[in-house]
């Protein structure tokens, strides 16, 4: 058995707010959009050459095709890591856009500078770069 790639998909409370974060603030590019009755319910995004993420709307109490409940969200079961050139300036820009900083930029023992911000649904997003 061989798998080729992974495509994480997030259930969002407010798809437009999530697009503003992932597309507009982090620089993901929209690659696909699905609408039902004129309402966008799913968007696929790409960052760079191969990083993909899907954002979808699931109504309160709703479930996915698999039948498991996806709403309401309980806890934070998702964390995304995005690489950038400058953690400090990137986090400063995200904070200026109103995204909460969960952990201020700090150096790690494994050779990266990291920080955490929250996406519009409260998921932690690690902003990281290799230390110069």
What secondary-structure arrangement, pairings included, does this model have?
Elements: E1 9-12, H1 15-25, E2 29-36, E3 39-47, E4 51-57, E5 80-83, H2 87-96, E6 101-107, E7 112-118, E8 124-130
Structure characterization notes:
- The protein is of the alpha/beta class and 132 residues long.
- It has one domain: Roll (2,3-Dihydroxybiphenyl 1,2-Dioxygenase, domain 1).
- It contains two helices and eight strands.
- The relative contact order is 0.18.
Count of domains:
1
Helix content: 10-25%
In what order do the strands lie side by side in the largest sheet?
A: 1-4-3-2
Give the overall silhouette: globular
Overall structural class, as computed from helix and strand content, comes to alpha/beta
CATH level-two architecture = Roll
Give a brief rundown of this model.
With 132 residues, the chain is α/β, with parallel strands linked by helices. The chain has helices spanning 15-25, 87-96, and strands at 9-12, 29-36, 39-47, 51-57, 80-83, 101-107, 112-118, 124-130.
Which keywords apply here?
single chain, alpha/beta, 2,3-Dihydroxybiphenyl 1,2-Dioxygenase, domain 1, four-stranded mixed sheet, 2 helices, globular, Glyoxalase/bleomycin resistance/dioxygenase family protein, metal ion binding, oxidoreductase
